[in-house]
Amino acid sequence: MLNQSELSSISKGEEIDHFLLVKKCELRLTKAGKEFLSLELGDKSISCASNLWDDVAGFKSIKSSLAAGDVVK
Hints:
The chain has 73 residues and is mainly beta. It has one helix and four strands; from the N terminus they run E-E-E-H-E. It has a four-stranded antiparallel β-sheet, with no helix packed on it. The two termini are 15 Å apart.
């Protein structure tokens, strides 16, 4: 069993190194036509919205393999 604090106990701006469930993963486009992933990540206590932009190293392989139900760190 993992010994990590729940997301709901994390303070704003605090860095985390957690395993999180991908609850939603959608490929979207910016107004400029660039791709990004719109994500909802969470644990049993809370969920939060996140974006993964196309300038992140490995974006192409991530976008083709990441799906709701996956666990990420």
